[in-house]
Structure to design on (284 residues):
């Protein structure tokens, strides 16, 4: 007799077939996944090559088999993204998320290194990068520290540190929280990389300190060099926040968000305004 296995979801019995096996997904069961979030402006997929290279690098570290669609046939992946936007009737700006995960099977030890991938899209309100009119007020999250390891530069399915930092910022009514590594160095924010200006020098933590190897972080470094703005990668401590003249956060979706305050310290937004204009010029 063939009996379909049942599971319980929120107190209700359903068969595994009814759940579409989504709860057997290794991304759900073990966090065995990577993701990229990408901005699209007027069908221009911003920094597509850079996002794909970071994704492939992370997949290599996680021992995933990398399909040809991510390498020699990557234009097909780009076409899928544009087709998804059409089907969702998103014609201006969008947030794309590409999630890759090992195929189901096995417990901690997987049965295969083949992957599945999922692409989702949501509409954005603005057609350009827009600098926040009110500066962010930030705090430092001390309860958990980020471990420096091979996975640090990538966006993985294990995001509990960032989630709890996000819960903490809500509890204290801050706009964002800065993350510490195991050496108590400030490395990034909840979903952004960090830059500060001290003595007219632009400073961002090196990837070796454990921050995500951000696409927008690298673009800001590139633009700084292009416009002959002194820029260095250097470890940042909490006292540095009090010595800085400016503080801003970067990611691929928002571009730049400027910080107005950390505790009693107040900041300018000169370079934040400069870079937001440069980013929009590049994105056009």
């Amino acid at each position: 007799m063939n009996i379909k296995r049942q599971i319980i979801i929120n107190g209700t019995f359903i068969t595994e077939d009814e759940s579409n096996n989504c709860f057997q997904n290794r991304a759900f069961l073990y966090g065995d996944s990577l993701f990229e979030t990408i901005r699209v402006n007027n069908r221009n997929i911003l920094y597509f090559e850079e996002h794909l290279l970071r994704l492939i690098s992370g997949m290599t570290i996680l021992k995933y088999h990398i399909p040809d669609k991510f390498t020699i046939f990557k234009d097909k992946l780009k076409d899928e993204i544009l087709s998804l936007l059409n089907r969702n009737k998103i014609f201006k700006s969008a947030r794309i998320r590409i999630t890759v995960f090992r195929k189901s099977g096995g417990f901690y030890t997987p049965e295969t290194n083949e992957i599945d991938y999922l692409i989702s899209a949501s509409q954005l309100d603005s057609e350009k990068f827009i600098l926040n009119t009110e500066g962010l007020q930030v705090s430092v999250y001390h309860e958990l520290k980020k471990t420096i390891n091979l996975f640090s530069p990538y966006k993985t399915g294990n995001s509990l540190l960032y989630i709890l930092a996000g819960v903490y910022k809500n509890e204290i009514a801050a706009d964002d929280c800065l993350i510490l590594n195991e050496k108590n160095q400030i490395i990034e924010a909840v979903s952004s990389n960090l830059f500060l200006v001290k003595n007219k020098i632009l400073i961002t933590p090196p990837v070796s300190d454990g921050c995500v190897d951000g696409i927008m972080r690298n673009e800001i470094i590139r633009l700084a060099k292009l416009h002959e703005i002194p820029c260095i990668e250097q470890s940042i401590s909490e006292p540095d926040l009090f010595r800085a003249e400016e503080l801003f956060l970067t990611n691929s979706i928002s571009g730049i968000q400027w910080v107005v305050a950390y505790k009693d310290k107040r900041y300018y937004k000169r370079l934040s305004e400069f870079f937001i204009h440069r980013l929009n010029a590049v994105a056009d």
About this structure: The radius of gyration is 21 Å. The chain has two domains: 6-123, 136-283. The chain has a mean pLDDT of 94. The CA atoms of residues 224 and 274 lie 10 Å apart.
